Amino acid sequence: MPAPKNAMEIFRLLDKSNCRECGEKTCLAFAGAVFQGHRTVDECPKLTPSEIEQFSGSPSGGPSIEENREAHLEAMKQKIRKIDLAAATERAGGRFENGRLILKILGKDFSVDAQGNLMSDIHVNPWLAAPFFDYVLNGEGVTPIGQWVSFRELKNGKDRYPLFQKRCEEAMQRVADIYTDLFDDIVHLFSGRQVERQFQSDISVVLHPLPKVPVMICYWRPDEGIGSSLNVFFDQTADRNLDIGSVFSLGAGMALMFQKLALRHGFVEN
Ligand code: SF4
């Protein structure tokens, strides 16, 4: 489809139910946010992959979702070039070596130089790159206090929670249901740790996708006809170290990583 000329062209493709699953109050508000580049069209869970594809493969040269994401990352790189990386090190909870700010991301070194170039031992997943930049640029560097809250309790989290539930919690739950060693493997691969079971869950695992943004995943196995359940918790300070969009990306990005891990082990979701 040609690049939309206004928000109404995007609105026409939406299902107009105003279901709020994207976190906007109406489909029209969502269309406006997409048109202004604040949201991407794939954030409406009602659109099918082929409808999303219509936006992505714009023959007229309009920006695709991927291009929007790239432009966003490039803008953040530009900002990194203007800050003193060494001075940001302590706030970010990292170390500074050979001109690079190095942070532990899921147990692996992930670094950025003064030009904004990222380097990592793990694949630089764009879902994780944006929160990394946001954390370095805008995070307050608040130390976690050990109080776990859900995504919807974080600042501005309530409206976006339905989409977070779908893209992060439900996606992780589907993986955990088929891949029984998931939690042992993520503890091992991503330097996580099993903690005392929280909220009467069967398994509670804490991971550090950013040094001062711990994430706790709690899983309840299916039991006597009751389905399984999975919830993701953040430290109460998470919204001071990251904005809610980045917290969302982190959760959705981790869910994608788990899905890939499951695939690599031969587990395929129904
Ligand atoms: S998710 Fe948002 S854009 Fe999609 S149908 Fe619901 S309210 Fe409309």
UniProtKB/TrEMBL annotation:
Q: Which GO terms describe its molecular function?
A: 4 iron, 4 sulfur cluster binding; metal ion binding
Keywords, ordered alphabetically: 4Fe-4S, Iron, Iron-sulfur, Metal-binding
Q: Which InterPro entries match?
A: 4Fe-4S_dom (IPR007202), Dihydropteroate_synth-like_sf (IPR011005), DUF3786 (IPR024264)
Residue ranges of the TM segments? none
Q: Any keyword Iron?
A: yes
Q: Pinpoint the 4Fe-4S domain residues.
A: 1-61
Recorded protein name is: 4Fe-4S domain-containing protein
Q: Please tell me the species this chain comes from.
A: Desulfosarcina widdelii
